[in-house]
Phytanoyl-CoA dioxygenase family protein (Horticoccus luteus), 319 residues
Amino acid sequence: MTSPLTSAPVPESPGVRKVPFVDSTPLLGDADALRARAADDGFLFFKHFLPVAELFALRKDMLAVVERHGWRQPGQDALGGRINLDALNEVPEEKMRTDIGVSIAAYDDVQKLESFHRLPHHPKLLALYRTLFGSEVLVHPRHIGRMITGHKAVFPTPPHQDFPLIQGTAATWTCWFPLGDCPRSCGGLTILKGSHRAGYIPIQPSKGAGGIAVSLCPWETEWAEGDYEAGDIITFPSHTVHKALRCQHKDLIRLSLDVRYQSVNDVVEEKSLKPHCDLTWEQIYAGWSSDALKYYWQRQPLTLTPWNDTYLQPSRRIC
Ligand SMILES: O=C(O)CCC(=O)C(=O)O
Ligand SMILES: [Fe+2]
């Protein structure tokens, strides 16, 4: 893979204390130790967790979509993420998925990829969450594939909790991982350490994926961040505050997945079982070679819980 990444400095924000990620790999298999660290920090980071060959296979499939839509620079191998931002900027805002980074049509093409829906079921991921939950795992089929670009209508993901966007149980865990190296200068995910203890935090509307930002109190400054390498994952329950760093490279696309896991014994909101786009599951499944992962959640004993709009209503936070 050609790597045009440099370690361009990421601008400092005032009042931010940066702490490095701690690799939790030595705790794998020890449910009590993993839960204790997650209870302290609000997240777990694992270095080189996913096999790079499988990540790169999906990266290649997603970049092939970018290429078909005419935004990939020529003269790079199948894993190179250099794009033609001027060409992408010709896509008008109303045809964009600004929460994703590319057009609605391109994201639909990614959602149709079998490889995109298969990777979140990797046995290592299932084993991790089985250990954490002490039960069978529901993998939400609503996977999100970020294809973050410098398109003029795309903004870095603001600080938010996933809970108001996903609902169901607050013990839903997000797993975020880049599909390739993602140093801080490429706009990786960063986590507000210990923020899960605050419970639900009031929101304000904001630019960037999700469209909401939490109001932070002056002492909430300890951000865990690091340079991700291919295979690294970070995972956290849905009250943990997180945001993306701003990408410093205008001509690179940042490919990453965010996937959700929960215990089958906890409640789930119905939207989590729907595609993350306007296609139907039938349309998504049309070109797949295997039936094994089609409608798999319908074979699990799930309890649904209703959507609650009040979580998405802006309100003031008293610090
Ligand atoms: O990748 C991003 O910019 C946002 C990801 C995110 O918010 C998540 O994984 O929950
Ligand atoms: Fe999020």
